């Protein structure tokens, strides 16, 4: 999810408000994040008081700890850029039961958990982090609606028997059954050579 999406769904109005954004956005930009970066926000138990923003970038992981309202000061952001070879992660684990998925992933002492659709978001974020740690390019960002559209299209193509597997099977079948050679009548030159 992008930071703007996190702010729109913040559990506390001040945590997603303009005052906090005015403190956080310049810091993220200074560390090389995009204007509306793909990130994870760990709201924690007291999002009205404090939360963390985790942003994967090419040089490393931005970890921004935000205090929403410091007495006498207003919002405060303490941010660090952790090089990828120093990022501490745990295992990406998934549990399924009764048609539901529960996924968890630990990164820099933050435990990210998700159920069903949110589990997909946690997995997408975790796979971006793991790719960066491995030195691979960050995978493309897929937002929820596109992922839902893609999965509906995949189900439809499986139901119809279309798609890459079905078309490759049809192509393989047409290659596997060659046509028998056709016989032609011998030419007059061939008749003369066979008569000798």
Task: Give the SSE layout.
Blueprint lengths: L2 H6 L9 H13 L9 E3 L7 E7 L3 E11 L3 E10 L9 E5 L2 E8 L2 E6 L1 H17 L10 H17 L3 H13 L11 H8 L1
Antiparallel strand pairs: 1-2, 2-3, 3-4, 5-6, 6-7
Structure description:
By secondary structure, the chain is an alpha+beta fold. The protein contains 6 helices and 7 strands. Strand 1 and strand 2 form a beta hairpin. The protein is globular and about 45 Å long. The protein has one domain (3-142). The protein has a 4-stranded antiparallel beta sheet with strand order 1-2-3-4. Strands 5-6-7 form a 3-stranded antiparallel beta sheet, with helices on one face.
Helix fraction, binned, reads 25-40%
Helix and strand succession? HHEEEEEEEHHHH
User: Can you list the strand order of the major beta sheet?
Assistant: 1-2-3-4
Shape: globular
Question: How many DSSP H or I helices?
Answer: 6
Distance between the termini: 85 Å
* Radius of gyration (Å): 28 Å
β-sheet strand percentage = 25-35%
Are there runs of 5+ residues with pLDDT below 50, and where?
145-178
Q: Name the structural class.
A: alpha+beta
Q: Which whole number gives the mean pLDDT?
A: 79
Could you tell me the number of beta strands?
A: 7
Main sheet properties: 4 strands, antiparallel
The overall number of domains is: 1
Salient structural properties:
single chain, 196 residues, alpha+beta, 4-stranded antiparallel beta sheet, 3-stranded antiparallel beta sheet, 6 helices, globular
